[in-house]
């Protein structure tokens, strides 16, 4: 074989050897001077090496083989036409943010193939009702938004709770993740084991993404690590990957929609790479509603049809920096969570 066709080989260097090279290049300047302030808040070094990985890395499984694209459909006279148009462009998880008038909801939407979709409804659902007034008559795989108090008995029977992690600073993120775990545990402690398994299978876990896309990516992965640990602690007979819903909202907006799409695209990259199951690019631009919806779909299709990133189970797996950051967030949150449990 010709030498020019032979792939190059590189001799491995230890962490200490690389640090010597970095210090030499910095000419005596402290390596911590390269560290972003938010990384300092988490005590994460700007230099990462294989030797820094504290745990054996394995891909973190999603619920779905590929994430689902979410689009919001307020209930109005155009909902039916908007929904059918969106379904023809790849929407697989329609989200209905308004409490639904169930008596009239199904009539204009009878032709929708609900069993092929993963809809997200908002409480309250019509409890103890006959078909066709309940989503379960149409699809078993749906999710329920809204506070726990609404449809509580139904949520307990089916596990269709909704938990949330708000956008926050790097220093506060482990605390918010610990609060998320405590919220889950509060509900689990009211359930039988079979119902607890249903909760992990059917609950929706919302994460609002902010502008620190690197941090948000690691936060999504930390949620999976923490969920796996929680299910292990409860000795459930079968563990389930949790359904993570990444919301990319108008707080990322810039001076106009076109410029904002740069931020939305980067946030969508973080959601895909972080392993979200549902990705909702939600500009909420009333003045340019049709255009904003089309651009949001195109961002998703970019990762599907051009980069093929949607086809990778865990794109961040094996990245020294992202693995360490994900586990640092998870460990910090777990320590705070255990402290709260022990003090209760």
Task: Considering the chains and any ligands shown, give keywords for the structure.
344 residues; six-stranded parallel beta sheet; 11 helices; 10% strand
Kindly describe this structure.
- The protein has one domain (63-101, 115-343): Alpha-Beta Barrel (TIM Barrel), CATH 3.20.20.240.
- Helices cover 42% and strands 10% of the residues.
- The chain has helices spanning 15-26, 37-41, 79-87, 102-105, 152-158, 173-188, 193-202, 213-233, 257-274, 289-306, 320-343, and strands at residues 68-72, 93-95, 120-122, 143-145, 162-165, 204-208, 243-248, 278-281.
- The strands form 2 sheets. It has a 6-stranded parallel beta sheet. Strands 3-4 form a two-stranded parallel sheet.
- The protein is globular and about 70 Å long.
The level 1 CATH classification is Alpha Beta
Q: DSSP strand (E) fraction?
A: 5-15%
Helix content: 40-55%
* Unreliable sequence segments: none
CATH topology: TIM Barrel
Overall body shape: globular
The CATH H-level homologous superfamily: Methylmalonyl-CoA mutase
Number of helices: 11
CATH architecture: Alpha-Beta Barrel
| Rg, nearest Å | 22 Å
Q: In terms of structural class, how would the helical and strand content be classed?
A: alpha/beta
Number of domains: 1
Please report the distance between the alpha carbons of the first and last residues: 68 Å
| Strand/helix succession | HHEHEHEEHEHHEHEHEHH
Which whole number gives the mean pLDDT?
87
| Main sheet: strands, sense, barrel | 6 strands, parallel
For the largest sheet, list the strands in their spatial order. 2-1-8-7-6-5
Number of strands: 8
């Amino acid at each position: 074989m010709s030498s020019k066709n032979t792939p190059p080989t590189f001799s491995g260097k230890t962490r200490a050897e690389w640090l010597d090279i970095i210090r030499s290049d910095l000419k005596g300047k402290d390596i911590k001077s390269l560290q972003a302030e938010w990384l300092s808040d988490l005590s994460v070094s700007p230099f990462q090496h294989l030797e820094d990985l504290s745990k054996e890395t394995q891909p973190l499984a999603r619920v779905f083989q590929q994430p689902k694209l979410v689009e919001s459909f307020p209930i109005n006279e155009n909902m039916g036409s908007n929904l059918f148009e969106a379904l023809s462009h790849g929407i697989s998880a329609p989200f209905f943010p308004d409490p639904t008038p169930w008596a009239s909801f199904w009539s204009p939407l009878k032709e929708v193939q609900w069993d092929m979709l993963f809809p997200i409804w908002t409480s309250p659902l019509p409890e103890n009702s006959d078909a066709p007034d309940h989503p379960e008559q149409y699809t078993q795989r749906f999710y329920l938004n809204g506070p726990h108090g609404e449809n509580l008995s139904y949520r307990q029977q089916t596990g269709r709770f909704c938990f949330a992690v708000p956008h926050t600073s790097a220093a506060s993120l482990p605390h918010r993740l610990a609060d998320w775990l405590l919220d889950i545990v509060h509900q689990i402690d009211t359930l039988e084991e079979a119902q607890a398994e249903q909760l992990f299978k059917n609950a929706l876990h919302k994460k609002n993404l902010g502008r620190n896309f690197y941090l948000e990516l690691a936060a999504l992965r930390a949620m999976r690590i923490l969920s796996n640990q929680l299910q292990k602690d409860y000795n459930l007979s079968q563990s389930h990957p949790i359904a993570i819903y990444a919301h990319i909202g108008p707080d990322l907006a810039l001076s106009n929609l076109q410029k904002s799409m740069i931020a939305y695209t980067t946030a969508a990259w973080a959601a895909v790479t972080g392993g979200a199951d549902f990705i909702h690019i939600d500009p909420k631009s009333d003045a340019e509603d049709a255009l904003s919806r089309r651009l949001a779909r195109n961002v998703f299709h970019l990762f599907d049809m051009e980069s093929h990133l949607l086809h990778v189970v865990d794109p961040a797996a094996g990245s020294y920096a992202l693995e360490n950051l994900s586990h640092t967030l998870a460990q910090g949150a777990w320590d705070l969570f255990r402290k709260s449990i022990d003090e209760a």
